Amino acid sequence: MPRFGEWDQRRARAIIAAHASLEGPVLPILHALLDEFGHIPDEAIALVASELNLSRAEIHGTVSFYHDFRRRPAGRHVLKLCRAEACQSMNGPRIARSLLHELAIDWGETTPDGALTVEGVYCLGLCACAPSALYDGEPIGRIDRDRLDGIVREARGT
Fold first, then answer.
1. Quick check: bond before 131 cis, omega within 30?
2. How far apart are CA 33 and CA 16, in angstroms?
3. Where are the domains of the chain?
4. Would you place residue 39 in the very low, low, confident or very high pLDDT band (cuts 50, 70, 90)?
5. Which residues fall within 8 angstroms of residue 78, CB to CB, at 6 or more apart?
6. Each residue of 89-108: pLDDT tens digit?
7. In this structure, are residues 120 and 108 in contact, taking their beta carbons and an 8 Å threshold?
8. In 20-157, where does DSSP find H-type helix?
9. CB 77, CB 118: distance < 8 Å
């Protein structure tokens, strides 16, 4: 998993400037900021709005609409569990509830040790292998509790 840099307004301004001339620059800018910093902090929303002469509400609306944009830093590892229909039909909700209960976190939260963030996503395109997940960007099909327990152990380094 890549290590992200601390928030740096000068670096953020450079990223915005590099994408500002694109048609519809908001999404490319937000993705680039996410790649650089690992999340979209409040300072980034205000800066993007100011630099593009848009309202903060417009940028906030974009960030909150798309599930890939997180507002807080993620853990060292990110597990995205599919919540779409095919995965629902293959016991995905039961498996996810069990994991979240064991970790004592909710969707979008990070374990207290900072090892793992668990996020819900809607369709990874792995419907034939449901239930599915992404772990640090790598697709995993036919996920079950044994596989998830292994992921948790790996994330924690145990």
1. yes
2. 8
3. 9-65, 77-156
4. very high
5. 1, 116, 117, 119, 134, 135, 136, 137
6. 999 999 999 999 999 999 99
7. yes
8. 26-37, 42-52, 56-65, 85-89, 92-103, 145-156
9. no
Q: What is the pLDDT of residues 12-31, one digit of tens each?
A: 999 999 999 999 999 999 99
DSSP secondary structure letter of residue 128: G
Strand partners, 121: 82
CATH topology of domain 77-156: Glutaredoxin (3.40.30)
Q: What is the pLDDT at residue 144?
A: 97
To which residue do tokens 């239930």 refer?
131
Whole-angstrom CA distances from 139 to 65, 79, 127, 142, 156 are 23, 10, 12, 10, 19
Q: Which residues contact 4 (CB under 8 A, 6 or more apart)?
A: 36, 37, 38, 39, 73
Secondary element (H or E) of residue 135 = strand 133-135
Alpha carbon of residue 5 to chain centroid: 16
Q: Percent of the chain having pLDDT more than 90? A: 91
